[in-house]
Amino acid sequence: MSILDSLRPLPGLRVLVTAGASGIGAAIALAFRETGARVHVCDIDRAALDRLNRQAPEIGSSMADASLPDDVDLVFDDVQGTLGGLDVLVNNVGVAGPTGAIQDLRRGDWERTVAVNLNSQFYFAQRAVPLLRQSTQNPSLIAMSSVAGRLGYPLRTPYAATKWAVVGLMKSLAIELGPHGVRVNAILPGTVEGERMDGVIGARAAEQGVSAQAMRAQYLDKISLRRMVTPADVAAMALFLSSRAARNITGQAISVDGNMEYL
User: Where exactly are the transmembrane stretches of this chain (predicted)?
Assistant: First the structure.
């Protein structure tokens, strides 16, 4: 096998992408589909699932709230029925959480951020690991963290805390699952172009009393390359981590962020 061939995931991989109907998740799901993978996604957004189904009807889907264990169980019932097993889990689900000084945050917002960003990672990993251990196709678990999982993030403490926790979970699972041939890594996207980032920038601008344009410029000034990343950039990293070229890469928190210097 040539090095170039090894850079492509094996065709026919069975892949589950959480929060896979839009944004980064959809970019990852569609990228795997292009490699010949059999892909299933779940999402809480019915309209987004319907759009993805019209675009790529061969991708299976489940509507689910990833923070609810019962919903996660139903997703795996669907995965067993449509894929018959699992070779790759991309644990992508997450929310931005509240923006504000810690003394002003509502406890419910904190608890929801933890439930979606962290608890869901546990629920999906717990159900996926037995299936990944049965795989003979270079099995891989990819956890979606954030550049906020390696840097402090003032006014976004719930988000940053959960994204640091995802990295800790990933590194621990890499050690736990390595003897079984299952690789575990985290992708840490930086500032990703799209509606979600527009909302984050708008909320932070309002909190600091500046325009959204000025806040966007502040974000770009913190990035060495002076540009945001795209969902396709993150999807390309997910494909690489699932390829044979990455067979000895595990326990790594890999940033895709243009070198975000600080937050």
Answer: 12-32
User: What single-letter DSSP state applies at residue 46?
Assistant: H
Catalytic residue selected from 123, 159, 171, 222: 159
CATH second-level architecture of 3-191+231-256?
Answer: 3-Layer(aba) Sandwich (3.40)
Whether residue 163 lies in the annotated active site: yes
Q: Which H or E element spans position 42?
A: strand 38-43
Helices 46-55, 23-34: axis angle to 10 degrees equals 20
pLDDT in tens, 144-184: 999 999 999 999 999 999 999 999 999 999 999 999 999 99
Q: What is the pLDDT of residues 44-84, one digit of tens each?
A: 999 999 999 999 999 999 999 999 999 999 999 999 999 99
Instruction: Kindly state the tokens that stand for 237.
Output: 């990293």
Catalytic pick among 123, 163, 171, 222: 163
State yes or no: is 222 an active-site residue: no
